[in-house]
Amino acid sequence: MYPSKLPGQGASIFTVMSALSNHHKAINLSQGFPEFNPDPALVDCVDRAMRNGQNQYSPMAGQPNLRGVLADRQNRWGRAFSIDPDKHITIVPGATAGLYSIFQALVLSGDEVILFDPSYDCYAPSIQLAGGVPVRLSLNADGSYPFESLKQHINPKTKMVVVNTPHNPLGLVFGQSDWTALSEILANTDIIVLSDEVYEHMVFDAAQHISVLQVPALADRAVAVSSFGKTFHATGWKLGYITAPEYLTNEIRKVYQFLAFAANTPMQIAAADFLTNHPLYEQSVSVLMQQKRNRFAAALKSSRFRLLPCEGAYFQIVDYSAISDMQDQAFAVHLIETIGVAAIPVSAFYQQPPQTQRWLRFCFAKNDDTLDKSAALLCQL
């Protein structure tokens, strides 16, 4: 028997809950993917690219036209340094592959990487596979960041701090005061900041997305990860990109070329064409998802669930403590088996989940009929 690189690591909670949902023919609000299709104009761009014979390898860093479009957008949105499409942007086959490349390239054996729990489940295993040590700090009970605890955990082995904004699963947005606090803590260090910004175009109400690349004190040692799959409502395309200063980009590309070499070509060509012809497309994503959030919240108003604030992304956290004292994974299974609605237990995003916490995560990136039907079932509890 060969020793495992990830002892104790089984299938992800998303795989488990989706499989259980399929088995019971439940409404799947667990795994984070939209139920609706991308803009038809975008699909037409893919079809045109494929029929025009653009089906072979792209350059390793990505299609030049797409990187150019992205650089123009990022510079328009405001960045602490001018984004160069050749030096700073790398197109990758999905944000998860991008994250893996980043950890493999920048984390050395014994390096410590600080995560804030609840944190996305791919971070810690990817760090371990790079030989690094995940150091997991829990967010405060109100969802704020534990900056005092962070100060105490910074040491000569600390290589990186990982931030996720808008946050999965909590839907919180890292604000200007948070970036300022983090900048002050990391001053006079060379600690890298990795910002997972895959939901950057889904921010609601008065919230505003601020990229790490907009923070002058951090941008020169920061890496931002973005997702076309999320922004285009096409998660199955597995297409994303990494933006970083040139010296970090060079290291990331050294690894990435041996992980996938290049992302799929027709989708890159299509993304460039579509974004060129729809300069304000990203704004529509926030509008759509806020409508979805509001509809789902209104439909649950008469339920016994307590809805936590949702500032961004497409997940609604609910507290079910008024309904049951079951542990969240058991209660999530109970929902699938009894009323036919699937959710994700939030404890799956922790190394040491709070024992008294009773939270589930529902994905509201679904058709209106699905949201109405699932909410009606949940209101029966």
Secondary-structure map with pairings?
Layout: H1 13-23, E1 27-28, H2 40-51, H3 64-77, H4 85-88, E2 89-92, H5 95-106, E3 112-117, H6 123-129, E4 133-138, H7 147-153, E5 158-164, H8 176-186, E6 192-196, E7 222-227, H9 228-231, E8 240-243, H10 246-259, H11 265-277, H12 281-299, E9 306-307, E10 315-319, H13 328-338, E11 341-342, E12 344-345, E13 359-363, H14 368-378
Parallel strand pairs: 1-11, 3-4, 3-5, 5-6, 6-7
Antiparallel strand pairs: 2-8, 7-8, 9-10, 10-13, 12-13
Helix pairs in contact: 2-11, 3-11, 5-6, 5-10, 12-14
Q: What this model shows, in words?
A:
A 7-stranded mixed beta sheet has the order 2-8-7-6-5-3-4, with helices on both faces. A 4-stranded antiparallel beta sheet has the order 9-10-13-12. A two-stranded parallel sheet has the order 1-11. Helix 12 (281-299) packs parallel to helix 14. With 381 residues, it is an alpha/beta fold. It has helices spanning 13-23, 40-51, 64-77, 85-88, 95-106, 123-129, 147-153, 176-186, 228-231, 246-259, 265-277, 281-299, 328-338, 368-378; strands spanning 27-28, 89-92, 112-117, 133-138, 158-164, 192-196, 222-227, 240-243, 306-307, 315-319, 341-342, 344-345, 359-363. The chain has 2 domains: 13-31 and 282-378, Aspartate Aminotransferase, domain 1, CATH 3.90.1150; 56-277, Type I PLP-dependent aspartate aminotransferase-like (Major domain) (Aspartate Aminotransferase, domain 2), CATH 3.40.640.10. 39% of the residues lie in helices and 15% in strands. Strand 9 (306-307) and strand 10 (315-319) form a beta hairpin. It has 14 helices and 13 strands.
